[in-house]
Amino acid sequence: MPLVPASNTITNFSGTASLTPLIGALMADSFAGRPPPCPTQQNCQEASSLQLSVLYISLLLTSLGSGGIRPCVVTFAADQFDMKKSTLASQKWNFFNWYYFCMGIATLTASTVVVYIQDDVGWSWGFGIPAIAMALSILALVFGSVLYVKLKPGGSPFTRLAQVIVSAFKKRKQLVPEDSKLLYQNRELDATISVDGTLLHTHQFKWFDKAAIIREGEATNSNPPNLWRLATVHRVEELKSIIRMLPIWSAGILLVTASSHQQSFTIQQARTMDRHLSHSFQIPPASLSIFGTITMLTGLVLYERLFVPLARRFTKNPSGITCLQRMGIGFTINIFTTLVSSFVEIKRKDVAAHHNLLDDPKAIVPISVFWLVPQFCIHGVAEVFMSVGHLEFLYDQSPESMRSSAAALYWVAISIGNYIGTLMVTLVHKYTGKEHNWLPDRNLNRGRLEYYYLLVSGIQVINLIYYVLCAWYYTYKHLEEAISKEEEEEEKEEEEEVDHHEIPFRRLDVANGFGDRVELARNNHQTV
């Protein structure tokens, strides 16, 4: 396939694989087909519609499987640990760092062992080994299910959000009482969606508080209310939490767009460079990403063992820095990834011009492929901050009953980012002319790839400014955290004034990290 369609196919696949956690996909059968080889890279016969349909169907099936795994695996794994703020404050490790570390090990294995098998053994085994690994993982999940902590579902979160909106709209002419204690609360009704604690009332987006206004006859002790007419404060705050998260979440989209085509373009660059590690061994172009993965893995360990303890001394935050600060650092670092990529491409073409190789797309330019390594390493460092911080932010700030949906938002951001990347590359290819096209189909030496990287760098700078503004005005959620029986006994020893007939709650000010200010509140019908 030509450069731009091939690169767009990769990002479209990544986008679809990231979108299916939310919308799913269609299943279909497929049958064999393979386009003829094109060793000269000139006047190539492109794959037929039938052959491409086989490819796209296979990728779609993979995307369908990803839809079940990606939004659930991180939240299910987190459910196996005590993720309460009060508990995390005393821990010396971060679950999300180690989750991403395990994913990095898997990526490293795919980029080395699997790629080697695909290139030197065959594609059948290259696809077969991951298929066998997935089968083993299914067996492990099934036979280990009796050992897992499994939380009961609380119903569709999207239905609850819609109920709040509808209820608020029906009461749009009502005045919200100044005293938030007059708004409707029902801990028994919210029990299945507030296992870790109840969301406290906030003064943002007060229009939605209308949904919790109690009108005559709407709330009785004998019957549950019609949730399309009356919502609890907790459910209203669920909607507010999601709305507050969306601007921060959306900032991650353009970060994905910035790096969406970098891998495929780098492979094209690497094919024109000296890839020899010895006289007999050449590093596969697709394996260059291992340097980014190794940097990310090393960075996660250093972040956990060195950066967090050092930052903690200055910030007094058990996590070292907040999720928002972590993401901001990642956004900043990633700008240098595309800047370095631009400079490397300028260097590569200068060497090609010096040796009169610009018009030979198959020629090996006498420049080491390791010139491409720094951009992967910088991106790996950015991932340590941005990707992990983004995932942790979505898990931490989302309502507990919507954490799988929040994890799906992480992948939806990747999906949208890849689709925007496809659109951007297509437009650049279409409107940068034929003679000096930035992204030519066959001969990268005559392209202007460095201009594309500079364009992406500029977009990232604008995105960083947008993110800083969103983060500056962001309000963390406020949670009244439930205390277990063991913790309750400890609190009784320290707080004799707590009524032993009532279940105490911790009220956490999560805007100060992991709740530096801890208060006790009683389990009354109205929030104390």
TrEMBL record:
<feature type="transmembrane region" description="Helical">
    <location>
        <begin position="55"/>
        <end position="78"/>
    </location>
</feature>
<dbReference type="InterPro" id="IPR036259">
    <property type="entry name" value="MFS_trans_sf"/>
</dbReference>
<feature type="transmembrane region" description="Helical">
    <location>
        <begin position="98"/>
        <end position="117"/>
    </location>
</feature>
<dbReference type="Pfam" id="PF00854">
    <property type="entry name" value="PTR2"/>
</dbReference>
<comment type="similarity">
    <text>Belongs to the major facilitator superfamily. Proton-dependent oligopeptide transporter (POT/PTR) (TC 2.A.17) family.</text>
</comment>
<keyword id="KW-0472">Membrane</keyword>
<feature type="transmembrane region" description="Helical">
    <location>
        <begin position="407"/>
        <end position="431"/>
    </location>
</feature>
<feature type="transmembrane region" description="Helical">
    <location>
        <begin position="281"/>
        <end position="303"/>
    </location>
</feature>
<dbReference type="InterPro" id="IPR000109">
    <property type="entry name" value="POT_fam"/>
</dbReference>
<dbReference type="GO" id="GO:0022857">
    <property type="term" value="F:transmembrane transporter activity"/>
</dbReference>
<feature type="transmembrane region" description="Helical">
    <location>
        <begin position="364"/>
        <end position="386"/>
    </location>
</feature>
<protein>
    <recommendedName>
        <fullName>Major facilitator superfamily (MFS) profile domain-containing protein</fullName>
    </recommendedName>
</protein>
<feature type="transmembrane region" description="Helical">
    <location>
        <begin position="324"/>
        <end position="344"/>
    </location>
</feature>
<feature type="transmembrane region" description="Helical">
    <location>
        <begin position="123"/>
        <end position="149"/>
    </location>
</feature>
<keyword id="KW-0812">Transmembrane</keyword>
<dbReference type="GO" id="GO:0016020">
    <property type="term" value="C:membrane"/>
</dbReference>
<feature type="transmembrane region" description="Helical">
    <location>
        <begin position="451"/>
        <end position="475"/>
    </location>
</feature>
<keyword id="KW-1133">Transmembrane helix</keyword>
